[in-house]
Write a structure and sequence with these properties.
It comes from Alicyclobacillus hesperidum. Its EC number is 6.1.1.20. GO terms for molecular function: ATP binding; catalytic activity, acting on a protein; magnesium ion binding; phenylalanine-tRNA ligase activity; transferase activity; tRNA binding. 34% of the residues are buried. The protein folds into 6 domains: 66 residues, Phenylalanyl-tRNA Synthetase, Chain B, domain 1 (2-Layer Sandwich); 114 residues, Nucleic acid-binding proteins (OB fold (Dihydrolipoamide Acetyltransferase, E2P)); 192 residues, Phenylalanyl-tRNA Synthetase, Chain B, domain 3; 65 residues, Phenylalanyl-tRNA Synthetase, Chain B, domain 1, CATH 3.30.56; 200 residues, BirA Bifunctional Protein, domain 2 (2-Layer Sandwich), CATH 3.30.930; 90 residues, Alpha-Beta Plaits (2-Layer Sandwich). The protein is of the alpha+beta class and 804 residues long. Strand 3 and strand 4 form a beta hairpin. Strands 27-31-32-36-35-34-33 form a 7-stranded mixed β-sheet. Strands 3, 4, 5, 6, 7 and 10 form a 6-stranded antiparallel β-sheet that branches. A 5-stranded mixed β-sheet has the order 12-15-18-19-20.
Length: 804
């Protein structure tokens, strides 16, 4: 936000406070001033002159010899090359000895045989920003109004003795996007009074207003309009143009300049329509129709959507609320009646409209951050008064106001306890000083013994909590005035909870087993989730970054598959990756409550293993994944088994649900060929473990026990079973059958074989069993009896036969 130092001085007594000192005070109070920029870029010795005569240069076609009155007696002869150097014009004249921006020195000289005693200046030559000037003023001599006093210093005439403060405002301080708000702020910081008028009486016209207003959307709480007739379409006065330029606003014509000037002064955006273009003299504020089109003031045809607010008449849209007007209601040189708008639009709707249409403006910025309802009427009155004064306009009837909210400008009260404020801020400050700070800010104070009620005006929408009042006290007291003290706090060492400790351990285990951890986007596309046929519905974003990132994922598999595809495309032969992340689940849209967040440990093996000198590269298979899971779950204290899975996107014969106790905590399996093809990979094995389920089923307390005193014994068997028999079922049978003995300390399958020597439709499964007794060394007879018991159980339950 750029702000004119002189404009502030009109309303606040800055005494001898320099712009730099004011910048320091604003920065200390939380309004960071990024730059202090003098408007004068090095101009001196330049005055206002009038061209009294002009003739062609005798020796140059493109030069003219001008006689210029600068108020010192005899006119000066000055040679000029500007095409608009015509008699009667008042222009800036750089006298001999003058200095221009860039250190240019002006002296008497002779040009093509004719003496020249100075220089007639363009806007650029005296340091004005030509991009902010009307096109007619941007080139050629800078023409001044005819009433400009001859001989007057151009620095004074163009307000170049002003200084601009560039303030980096935080989003919550919408009140300071105006002179009005900054006047209140500066007066509070300096503890001085200000003279900014909070109430303005607008000139009233005779009769009734010819305009009617219909608010057909809840996104416009208040709308006011004033119709004016007989507007003189001229340029705005020089002082107004210079203020607008100082604040970085382009000058256009009187009506536009007045609306911009009042917006800067009051923080309330205004817009003017050609009143004669409004059908049936009725303004309708409504939501746009899907597919409705509007040509905006920049000449672009815009296709609108239902979530955009439009200003319309009964026949057509005439403007995008808070963003840009329509070309069909534009004010032109022939316009004589205008309808001046002052309103409050929903900031979120204005922001979305601007983003979708690629538009950005000063007015839009203010609506996004929030405008003060109490400024709507005074800003309209101020603009009306200026148009009457400067443009000869006549109001037709009074202004018309329609609203759907409580009284505009209503304040609110916040409870405040001074003692609690002192405790929160950590320094001593008297009640009287706190009350003085609130009064300086324009807040009302109702003291009730130890408890106060602080009344906050509507312009300070950022102050809604008691904590906000504490901040205002600290800010205005001065952060530099707060004493430095050493705070002694008890040192409490940080501790990981069970979930954090388990996931940290899981990360280390998985990395040690050769997997790489990845972090992927939680956002994906509906197409990426389609192969999983999930019962959950992807949650769409209102403003997605791209089509590829427009919904929240319901599963981590598409994210890991994207990693696999990326690596395979970059000539990586294969890999194993994992991610600990969340998916977002809901079965109904639109959302009526927060979606369920499901955290999982997801793993994916794709492509080939890395070959070594002793082992050739091979494709990852189901048992690679199962081995990792067995080690991981055992290390995390979860006793898990595996049962056949019915998940449709996994291979029906190479997948299993992971079960701990009575609860399914995860799944592992090779992707179904169709699923793998849909993700763009040839073959892959996926596994996931639900973190909450794992945490609930694992042993919470690890108990230490003495090392065994007696050696154990291992026995391996190979059995032949039907191919459909699950290895997990075999291990479960052995474990259950030998559970009563208490001697089975380890059990796992280490080989599955199908081929020569094994009957068709059967497979060979090799199982290793480890036995150990706590009180003596097991004899061969005891071990053989245990093995026989296991084989018998496998034969009875699974038609197993020992492989010979």
């Amino acid at each position: 936000m750029k702000v004119s130092y002189q404009w502030l001085r009109e309303y606040v007594d800055l005494a001898d406070l320099s712009p730099e000192a004011l910048a320091d005070k604003l920065t200390s109070a939380g309004l960071a001033v990024d730059a202090v920029e003098p408007r004068n870029k090095g101009v001196s010795g330049v005055v206002v002159g009038e061209i009294v005569a002009a003739r062609q240069h005798p020796n140059a076609d493109r030069l003219r010899v001008c006689m210029v009155n600068v108020g010192t007696g005899e006119p000066l002869q000055i040679v000029c090359g500007a095409p608009n150097a015509n008699p009667g014009l008042r222009v800036p004249v750089a006298l001999p000895g003058a200095t221009l921006p860039g250190g240019v020195q002006i002296r008497r000289t002779t040009l093509r045989g004719v003496e020249s005693n100075g220089m007639l200046c363009s806007a650029a030559e005296i340091g004005l920003e030509t991009r902010l000037l009307p096109s007619a003023q941007a080139t050629g001599l800078f023409v001044l109004p005819e009433e400009t006093p001859i001989g007057e210093d151009i620095v004074k005439v163009l307000c170049l003795d002003d200084v601009v403060l560039d303030i980096d405002l935080t989003p919550n301080r919408s009140d300071c996007f105006s002179i009005r708000g900054l006047v209140h702020e500066v007066a509070a910081i300096l503890r001085s009074r200000h003279s900014f008028p909070e109430h303005i009486e607008a000139p009233k016209g005779a009769g009734e207003s010819p305009i009617a207003i219909d608010l057909a959307t809840e996104r416009c709480p208040r709308y006011e309009a004033q119709v004016l007739d007989g507007i003189n379409q001229t340029s705005s006065p020089l002082w107004m143009q210079m203020r607008l330029i100082a604040m970085g606003i382009r000058t256009i014509d009187l009506v536009v300049d007045v609306t911009n000037y009042v917006m800067l002064e009051w923080g309330q955006p205004l817009h003017a329509f050609d009143a004669d273009s409004i059908a049936q003299s009725q303004i309708v504020v409504r939501q746009a129709h899907d597919g409705e089109e509007l040509v905006t003031l920049d000449g672009q045809k815009r296709t609108l959507t239902r979530d955009m607010i439009v200003i319309s008449d009964p026949e057509k849209a005439i403007g995008l609320a808070g963003v840009m007007g329509g070309e069909n209601s534009e004010i032109t040189a022939s316009t004589r009646r205008i309808a001046l708008e002052s309103a409050r639009f929903d900031g979120s709707s204005v922001r979305r409209t601007g983003q979708r249409l690629g538009l950005r403006s000063e007015a839009q910025q203010r609506f996004e951050k929030g405008v003060d309802p109490a400024a709507i009427s005074p800003a309209l009155a101020r603009a009306t008064a200026l148009l009457v004064e400067l443009g000869g306009a006549r109001p037709i009837g009074p202004s018309v106001a329609v609203h759907q909210e409580r009284k505009a400008g209503d304040s609110w009260q916040i409870p405040f306890v001074p003692e609690q404020c002192r405790e929160a801020l950590g320094f001593a400050i008297s009640n009287d000083e706190m009350e003085a700070i609130f009064h300086a800010l324009g807040f009302g104070v109702h003291r009730q013994e130890d408890k106060w009620l602080v009344e906050v005006p509507s312009r300070r929408a950022d102050v809604t909590l008691t904590a906000d009042l504490y901040e205002e006290i600290a800010r205005l007291h001065g952060y530099d005035n707060i004493p430095s003290t050493v705070t002694v706090l008890p040192v409490t060492p940080g501790m990981r909870d069970r979930r954090q400790a388990m996931l940290a351990k899981a990360r280390v285990l998985l990395v040690n087993m050769g997997l790489f951890e990845v972090r992927t986007y939680a956002l994906t596309s509906p197409d990426a989730l389609a192969p999983l046929s999930s019962p959950y519905r992807p949650i769409p974003l209102l403003l997605p970054m791209s089509d590829e990132r427009r919904v929240l994922r319901t599963h981590l598999l598409p994210s890991l598959a994207e990693v696999a595809v990326h690596n395979l495309a970059h000539q990586v032969p294969g890999g194993a990756v994992f991610e600990i992340g969340k998916s977002y689940l809901t079965s109904e849209l639109p959302l009526r409550s927060q979606p369920q967040e499901r955290e999982v440990i997801a793993m994916l093996w794709f492509g080939e293993t890395e070959g070594t000198l002793y082992e050739k590269a091979r494709r990852y298979d189901f048992y690679d994944a199962k081995g990792v899971l067995e080690n991981l779950l055992a290390a995390l204290g979860a006793d898990a088994s595996y049962v056949r899975s019915a998940i449709p996107w996994l291979h029906p014969g190479r997948s299993a649900d992971i079960v701990a106790g009575e609860e399914t905590i995860g799944v592992v399996g090779e992707l179904h060929p169709e699923t793998a093809k849909a993700f763009g990979i040839d073959r892959a094995i996926y596994a996931e473990i639900d973190v909450a389920s794992l945490l609930a089923t694992r042993e919470s307390d690890m108990q230490a026990k003495a090392l065994p005193r007696f050696p154990g014994s291992r026995r391996d068997i190979a059995i032949v079973v039907d191919r459909e028999t699950l290895v997990g079922d075999l291990l479960r049978t052995v474990r259950e059958r030998l559970a009563t003995s208490g001697l089975l300390q380890g059990l796992r399958a280490f080989d599955v074989y199908v081929g020569e020597g094994v009957p068709e439709g059967r497979k060979s499964v090799a199982i290793t069993m480890f036995f150990q007794h706590a009180e003596h060394t097991l004899t061969d007879d005891e071990i053989e009896q245990l093995v026989a018991t296991a084989i018998d159980a496998l034969r009875v339950n699974h038609n197993a036969q020992l492989r010979s």
